[in-house]
Amino acid sequence: MFDPQSIRADFPLLNRSVRGGKRLVYLDTGATSQKPAAVLEAEKRFYECSNAAVHRGAHEVAEEATEAYEAARGAVAEFVGADFGEIVWAKNATEALNLVAYGFLNATLNHRAGRGDAEARRFVLQPGDEIVVTELEHHANLVPWQELAAKTGATLRWISVTPEGRLAPETFSVINARTRIVAFTHASNVTGAVSPVAEIVRLAAEHGAYTVLDACQSAAHMPVNFRELGVDFAAFSGHKMLAPTGVGALYGRRELLEALPPFLTGGSMVEIVTMEETTFMPPPQRFEAGTQMVAQTVGMHAAVDYLSGLGMQNLAAHEDTLAQQMLDGMADIPGVRVLGPLDATDRLAVVAFDVDGVHPHDVGQVLDDQGVAVRVGHHCAQPVHRAFGVHASTRASAGIYTSADDVEAFLAGLHTVIEFFGVSGR
User: Fold this and answer.
1) CATH 3.90.1150.10 applies to domain 4-30+311-421
2) Is 49 known to be catalytic?
3) For the chain, N or C: smaller number of CB within 10 Å?
4) Where does the record locate the signal sequence feature (predicted)?
């Protein structure tokens, strides 16, 4: 039985009190998750017993470190439905997405300079080519594509958002014969809406475009299998899925990673280096230049083991219930406007909202006084806020350790906000 109260006991930070002894109600998991003791212990144990540079030393400790590093890769690959060689370590999803964008840029620049091999030409962009994104994107999956378009002469186009906060199917027609890349979120960090991945992948494939999925919000909250989804690339961050900060991953289909030029160059990703030129290792090492975040990958291994032990289907069902509880409770509060779907169907327990006449920072401060931790601001997603006609919002986001009591505490705090500011509704 999925019991968030017993799960909460596995997370040391959640045992602390805040604001004069109040129980911490942590509803900011969409920004970063808390870490279970198993993850903290795994990272600590690595530093105490096996800390060494990977893929370099011939001594026993270095061998242990390398084995731990690659075992983590295998565990994460299995967790997201990938092959071992299709997972590239990065320090976060932002770096992983930039890795893909700069791979396209480097392929284009190499081609224009008469460099690069025939396999890399598939990534070359020309003026008139188009890159498609959506209005729901986190800046990490928007700004790199803006920059790529500007530097290559490609055109950036986008899928619009509906008033409900979902992708508008009537604007999917922006995916056409000129489209080379379709970059889109699996689940919005503002509206919580889950994208119709199968439909977008089908349209992209019909036109020979590559798909890049931002799976930051989905990977920790629902079963994810990138092979079954059919995407070409996908990025996700460890810190949002119970793992340490400073580690994330890129999934790429093996044949694409083998052709993609590297983003960062230096030690650990080279084969032969002369004073005139360098050859690069095959993936995934080709994309892992320099000293890697070994202890953090060990922590990520422990995180996916913990999540797998609970069962991602169980976790998703639990959070669906929490999402509906939040939405139902907020529907009865005057002056509160949810920015996103009003039911839990194809939706995560990520609920951003606007309180009529009250700045999100003020909402967050009153909730914080009640011991309820939420996110305020534009959540690195200004375009979707603009689509809703607001500059910022308050966001409550649940996790595996969130209980129905936590949601009730949040709703009670929100009633306090309404009373404190005298909100009467629209």
Assistant:
1) yes
2) no
3) N
4) none
